[in-house]
């Protein structure tokens, strides 16, 4: 059984707007943002910012 990914469209949109819109990167941004949101208990906007920073850092 695989883990269910909860859609996080703001993260996917943010990455797509950065010109990085491959399916793999969109899924990765989604996973990063959701994990950050859960672990830090932050707002969706803060989670998206963290996902974008992580994607840029590689």
Automatic annotation (TrEMBL):
It comes from the Bacteria. This is Uncharacterized protein.
